[in-house]
TrEMBL record:
This is Sidoreflexin. GO terms for biological process: one-carbon metabolic process; serine import into mitochondrion. It is found in: Mitochondrion membrane. GO terms for cellular component: mitochondrial inner membrane. The chain crosses the membrane at residues 175-195, 225-247, 267-287. Keywords: Amino-acid transport, Membrane, Mitochondrion, One-carbon metabolism, Transmembrane, Transmembrane helix, Transport. Belongs to the sideroflexin family. PANTHER family: SIDEROFLEXIN, SIDEROFLEXIN-1. It comes from Rousettus aegyptiacus (Egyptian fruit bat).
């Protein structure tokens, strides 16, 4: 191996210790960096070439460790970890903050009329379906029918929840009405994610030991993993959909916003974006991405694992 880097850098794992919350948070702040969506195809391909060459023992002269890790995270931000395929742009983790801040901000601004509720809940669930499909396990691909069922079910659930709660909140404080989009998003996540990953629930996800030896597939492990995804997705929405309503409720009583009502949407989008910049990586870091089952756990798994 030529070059300045030692052959012992393990780029198959994140740069930071994933057994700690801090290490996982550092990892996801890098993974969700919105600047990565601005990278060109040439930059992505260059990063992929650096990573693939290093795996084969080829190091370009002058390549530093920081540059290697940068290339690794650029590569991971755009290519599926299981299949190696380039992911759809809006389905990448780096698109989470800009896409969610725009959609969520609009959901929370235009929530008073039925057409607006239906439209923005449909947009949100369409985006969620793309994200869940893009980041699905490469070992359990979805069929077109399964994808369609998950999409229609989640969209219907979100719209029904939003419209039902909107009708109830007409008799209470206007502030409560601002939390209807969050309730709809939480309900839809509980529907969308399990349905989008239903094949994993049926056939299981791969179970390996700490050396990477594949032991089989486990539906039990899939249920645990999907439950953690649901929890993290719901909690991820809490700051962005829980804090701005109080701020906007106060601002809309001010003369400036009454005079320029068109400012509500951009202000709300900005508030949501600020919250999501921190909430997205921190909530992704709540649970380890990999967990090795103990011998006692393996014995409790029913076949297939």
């Amino acid at each position: 191996m030529s070059g300045e880097l030692p052959p012992s850098i393990n780029i198959e794992e994140p740069r930071w210790d994933q057994s700690t919350f801090t290490g996982r948070a550092n990892h996801f702040f890098t993974v969700t960096d919105p600047r990565n969506i601005l990278l060109s195809d040439a930059q992505l391909e260059h990063a992929g070439r650096v990573v693939r060459d290093y795996r084969q023992g080829i190091v370009p002269p002058g390549l530093t460790e920081n540059e290697l890790w940068r290339a690794k995270y650029i590569y991971d931000s755009a290519f599926h970890p299981d299949t190696g395929e380039k992911m759809i742009l809006i389905g990448r983790m780096s698109a989470q903050v800009p896409m969610n801040m725009t959609i969520t901000g609009c959901m929370m601004t235009f929530y008073r009329t039925t057409p607006a509720v239906v439209f923005w809940q449909w947009v949100n669930q369409s985006f969620n379906a793309v994200v869940n499909y893009t980041n699905r396990s490469g070992d359990a691909p979805l069929t077109v029918n399964e994808l369609a069922t998950a999409y229609v079910s989640a969209t219907s659930g979100a719209v029904a929840t939003a419209l039902g709660l909107n009708a109830l909140t007409k008799r209470v404080s206007p502030l409560l009405g601002r939390f209807v989009p969050f309730a709809a998003v939480a309900a839809a996540n509980c529907i969308n994610i399990p349905l989008m990953r239903q094949r994993e629930l049926k056939v299981g996800i791969p179970v390996t030991d700490e050396e990477g030896t594949r032991l089989g597939e486990s539906a039990h492990a899939a249920r645990q993993a999907i439950a953690q995804v649901v929890v993290s997705r719901v909690l991820m929405a809490v700051p962005g959909m829980g804090i701005p309503p109080f701020i906007m409720n106060a601002l809309e009583k001010k003369a400036s916003l009454k005079r320029f009502p068109w400012m509500s949407a951009p202000i709300q989008v900005g508030l949501v974006g600020f919250c999501l910049v921190f909430a997205t990586p921190l909530c992704c870091a709540l649970f380890p991405q990999k967990r090795f089952p103990s011998a006692s756990e393996l014995r409790t798994y029913s076949m297939p694992f």
